[in-house]
What does this fold into?
Amino acid sequence: MLKRKNIMIVFGKGSNINMISLVIPCYNEENNVEDFFRRCLEVFHQDIEYIFINDGSKDHTYDKIENLSHDYSHEKIIGINFSKNFGKEAAMLAGLKKASGDYISVIDADLQQDPMYVLKMVEFLQMNQDYDAVACYQDVRKESKLMVSCKSLFYSLVNKISDTHFERNASDFRTFRKYVVDSIIEMKEYYRFSKGIFSWAGFNTYYMPYTVQERHAGVTSWNFRKLTSYALDGFVSFSTAPLRLATYLGLIASLGSLIYMFIVIIQKLFIGNVISGYTTIVCLILLIGGILMILLGIIGEYLARTYIEVKQRPIYIIKDEIDYEKDK
Ligand code: UDP
Ligand code: MG
It folds into this structure.
């Protein structure tokens, strides 16, 4: 049973209680991690635990994290180095598992999300004991119209077919109380669609607007293809409705065939056998063939994911680690 604690934050460095943990997934962020850390030093006067996860970067991100832990050895810095790129979802999971603060925030390393909002989220949770988490959403989306429309279509569709509610535009930039994180890390699935996982876990979440900044350095690792495949993960992980499509289409096709059969019999009995309908037959074969292929594809998507899930491979592999606790 999860019990809500009456948490009082004691601001001030050095205190181990009421610490804020920052989970920072990093992929090719060598030109951002130091500036991100300096920005945090400006913003926070609390006890902070920094958890940088190097998600198989191809640049010197991990060297930069190691340097930070040497140069700021009095700060609580953890560096997790993955053996390859496992994706942001895996990086978040590794960070959340490691976090020991009473408040735990997930924040990007590229300074698009100002650490100042972490304080706002923590303050909100302090003032509102009945809330368990805060999720930030972009007040103005700085994306192309096509991207905004595609995302809007995704949310409309997924909310129609899934029992889990997906809050429109809510980002991964969130702050949780510790017991929420304990529940999230209990979910062991390989395909992690975090927005769905957070929502599925329940808890009282407040949605806070924030203004997204331009990327400090480097380029985004998301492109249209990756986003489409991520959206597909969302559908397949949180709804089995597409599988039901086969049943519905089968019913419609059977009903159509019965009606057509009836028409053909009437024609045969009252008009005589008219040899025609070649075009109709070809069209129907192609149409039914196409529908069957699509349905096989949908079943394949579920099957492939089930196959990967039953293998129970680890979601990530850690190559090495820096831990302020162990390196004391
Ligand atoms: N990221 C990661 N692994 C990946 C891709 C991204 O850890 O495979 C990190 C990245 O370093 C950043 C955050 O996830 O801190 C968000 O990524 P990005 O800025 O590319 O996404 P966007 O802000 O454009 O949505
Ligand atoms: Mg970014």
In short: The CA atoms of residues 261 and 267 lie 10 Å apart. The beta strands are 20-26, 48-54, 76-82, 103-106, 133-138, 170-177, 205-210, 318-323. Residues 1-17 have pLDDT under 50 and may be disordered.
